[in-house]
């Protein structure tokens, strides 16, 4: 489930901005 990790990481990155 690497796509799931990528999707969650994407939200974290956006949240940090």
| Proportion of beta-strand residues | under 5%
Largest sheet: none
The stretches of 5 or more residues where confidence is low (pLDDT under 50) are none
Helix % is over 70%
Cα distance spanning the termini: 25 Å
**What structural class do helix, strand and pairing data support?**
mainly alpha
Instruction: Work out the number of β strands.
Output: 0
What letter string, H or E per element, gives the SSE order?
A: H
Mean pLDDT: 77
How would you describe this protein?
- It is a single chain.
- The protein is an all-alpha fold and 17 residues long.
- The protein contains 1 helix and no strands.
- It has one helix spanning 2-16.
- The longest helix is centred in the middle third of the chain and has 15 residues, at 2-16.
- The termini are far apart.
Question: What is shown here, in short?
Answer:
With 17 residues, this protein is mostly helical.
